[in-house]
């Protein structure tokens, strides 16, 4: 703990100095090309805000957004150099790439928080009408995931565990892409799924699904998504600190407008308009705004990392044989950049 405290002090001092330079209009470096991995979910709101509001440019970063439909392909892109930074859930694939020395988790983003709407547990209307009306009845039913070792896989593990249901009694259906899971739930091809509220609320409103639980009841401090990068970028302090500063500024905007409700109406409208360019584009702007606000989740201030949560996820990957049992915190995490909570 002593080493960590000293590192944090030096890092914060360095970030303060860099911030002072930026205040005089001189970023530490100009026009540095950066590819940022994103998905079209509300959890990526800070990515879009930092991009559209010029926060990345203010730090000298020329960011290009690269779109993905699942966590694992994003991790592969970071490892291969096709993307520089990513914000998504920890997956077995990400952990395995960290073991190979390719990636590092450097911060936290979306988080479950009691009292704030989070991921919802849904049953298809077909399954609900047939008796799947609560989480303790999931045994014998099917559940949608993108890939084995995804956040959806982890969430159903925790829900089943809390309800004393062996996970072997739930049929996992890996469908690779978020859109495919949405379609499968809507048509009753799978019985249940967990998803962020902005997506869940649309399924509920359409009559395609029924809510049968709230994930925060089972994982109240769940670090849903993390900020990660290549090991090479993790070693480039100036570049990575610049990225985190820009991202953190956008997090503050998002939380104030949608979670803490401390921003004015004009700011709420402005942020909703930016998000609508990337999320729920097919919906009318006002409808999308209401869905995004009603489904807002906390994003950790300054990308703080809930270490106990990601450690629990790592231990689960190990227990399921998805990753090498010898992987430890030092291999997976670089905790020198952000506050540990």
TrEMBL record:
Domain annotation SsuA/THI5-like: ranges: 43-253
Keyword Signal (UniProt): yes
Major localization class: periplasm
Keywords per UniProt: Signal
A Pfam entry, by short name: NMT1
Localization (cell): Periplasm
Signal recorded as keyword: yes
Protein name (Swiss-Prot/TrEMBL): ABC transporter substrate-binding protein
Lineage, broadest ranks: Bacteria, Pseudomonadati, Pseudomonadota, Alphaproteobacteria, Hyphomicrobiales
């Amino acid at each position: 703990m002593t080493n960590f405290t000293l590192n944090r002090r030096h890092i914060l001092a360095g970030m303060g100095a860099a911030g002072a330079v930026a205040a005089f209009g001189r970023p530490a470096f100009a026009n540095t090309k950066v590819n940022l991995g994103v998905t079209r979910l509300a959890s990526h709101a800070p990515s879009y805000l930092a991009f559209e509001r010029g926060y990345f440019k203010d730090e000298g970063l020329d960011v290009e957004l690269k779109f993905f439909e699942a966590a694992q392909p994003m991790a592969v892109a970071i490892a291969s150099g096709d993307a520089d930074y990513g914000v998504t859930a920890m997956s077995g694939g990400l952990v395995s790439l960290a073991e190979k020395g390719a990636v590092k988790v450097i911060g936290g983003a979306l988080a479950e928080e009691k009292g704030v709407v989070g991921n919802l547990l849904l049953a298809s209307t077909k399954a609900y009408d047939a008796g799947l009306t609560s989480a303790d009845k999931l045994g014998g039913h099917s559940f949608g995931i993108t890939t084995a070792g995804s956040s959806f896989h982890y969430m159903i593990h925790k829900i089943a565990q809390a309800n004393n249901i062996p996970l072997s009694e739930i049929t996992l259906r890996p469908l690779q892409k978020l859109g495919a899971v949405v379609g499968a739930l809507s048509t009753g091809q799978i019985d249940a799924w967990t998803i962020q509220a902005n997506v869940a609320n649309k399924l509920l409103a359409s009559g395609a699904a029924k809510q049968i639980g709230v994930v925060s009841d089972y994982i109240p401090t769940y670090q849903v998504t993390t900020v990660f990068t290549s090991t090479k970028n993790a070693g480039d302090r100036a570049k990575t600190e610049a990225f985190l500063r820009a991202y953190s500024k956008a997090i503050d905007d998002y939380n104030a407008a949608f979670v803490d409700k401390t921003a004015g109406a004009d700011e709420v409208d402005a942020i909703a308009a930016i998000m609508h360019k990337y999320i729920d584009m097919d919906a009318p702007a006002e409808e999308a705004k209401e869905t995004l606000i009603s489904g807002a989740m906390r994003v950790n201030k300054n990308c703080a990392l809930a270490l106990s949560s990601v450690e629990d996820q790592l231990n689960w990957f190990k227990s399921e044989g998805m990753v090498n049992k010898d992987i430890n915190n030092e291999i997976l995490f670089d905790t020198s950049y952000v506050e540990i909570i």
